[in-house]
Structure formats: structure tokens, C-alpha cells
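Dear all,

This email documents one entry for the complex benchmark we are building for the journal club exercise. For each entry we list the sequence lines for every component of the assembly. Then comes the predicted three-dimensional structure of the complex as a C-alpha cell string, followed by one or two observations. Please use this as the template for your own entries, and keep the labels exactly as they appear.
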Amino acid sequence: MMDPISAHEFLIRNDPSSGMGARKAGGGDEEGGGFGEVLKELVKETDELQKSADKTLEGFADGTVEDVHEVMMSMNKADLSFRMLLEIRNKLVDAYTEVMRTQV
Amino acid sequence: MNLNNLFKSLSISASGMSAERFKMGLIASNIAHARDTDTGNGLPYRRKDAVFATILEGELAGGVEVADWVEDRVTPMQQVYMPGHPHADENGMVTMPNVNPHNEMVDMIMSSRTYEANLEASRIAVEIARQALEIGR
């Protein structure tokens, strides 16, 4: 997870009113990376966890992984990170539909 | 963003389970060899015990690992009078392993309960993470 300090830095960086992070409009992620970058990284990590869960399961089948709980743990990790990604995605879609419903 | 912090307690519980599983293997071996008078070198079996240690660095830092396993050289071997036994000495005494099955069973119960405790801790960690994700709904 994001630790509180980097979350704070993230907020400051993306707040256009704070002098430290002020940058031209439209350019959200040239340096440091914006929310998109964080999201991309999260997708990557979730993917990696899914792959490692697959690998442990395979290893258990061919005998290189001895512990059953190790398989279950890696599957749990993959499941949890995917759920987190799903929640974030749901929030984004919610926000998008909310904006689309705005009366002009 | 590093998801590993989210799973820290999960990994630590898993390391505890691995360690207990190893110890249970040694206890099973102790019980199985309780009457083993020749381990290949003419000497009777000696009780084995696991040595646990804290993992200090790496991804699993803070977890527990089996640092080593040692043979019990403190508990005396049992002498049994069995003149017809091929491993008996000139007085008819056979040196039996220093394994006491009662103690091994107690150790086994302790190991299995510790394993269950680790399992419960990891189950609760997963449950908490899931419930935390519900906040967004």
C-alpha cells in the first residue's frame, strides 16, 4: 500500500495551488508520475502477483513447492490485490458516470 | 506503490507455518525412530529438534525460519536388557534411542496448535483487508 508520507507528497504534487507542485495545465505526469502512473504500477503489481500465484500452484503440482499454505497464501495475495484494483476501477467509473450526468 | 506492505502480516504468518511444519516433520521422525537401534553407522537414533530464529532481512524480515536442526545429546540413551537382539552388547544390553514418545506427542500438539494459531492470524489479516476494501462501496 501507499504509505501515508508518499500519499501526502502525492497530494501536494498534484495540487495546482501549491507552489511546489505547480505545473502547466494538462501535463499531469511528466516528472514524478501522476495518478495514472500509480494506477499503471498497481496493475503491474497485481499482474505479477497473479503470475506468481500461478507459478506456486504449478510448483506445488510438480513438487518444487512443498507447503500447501504457500500456495493458498500466494492465491490470497493475488485475490486481495485484484479486489483492490477492482475497487479503484469501480470508483473511477462511478466518478466518470457522475460527471457525464452533469447538466449543461 | 508497493503491495508487499499490505501482505506483511500474511508473509510472517506463512513463515511461522513453514517453521512449524518442519518441526512437525522432525517430531514425526522422532516417533517413527523411537525403537531404531541402528541408523546405518551402528549407532542408535538420536532425538532431533528444530532451532527457530528470526529472519532479519529480506522480503520476509520479521518472520521466523528454521535456522538449524540439532541432535539431542543431553538426554541419556535408554538401556534395555534384550540378550537375543543382534545389537546387544556382551551384557545383553541394547542402547535404545533417547526418544520419549509421550514428550514427542506433547511437542506435536504444541506444534499443531501453533500452526493453527498462525493460520487463524493469516485468516484474520485477509478478512481485515477485505473489509477495508468494502469502505469504498
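Observations: Residues 27 and 34 of chain A are 9 Å apart (CA to CA). The helical segments of chain A are 4-13, 35-62, 68-100.
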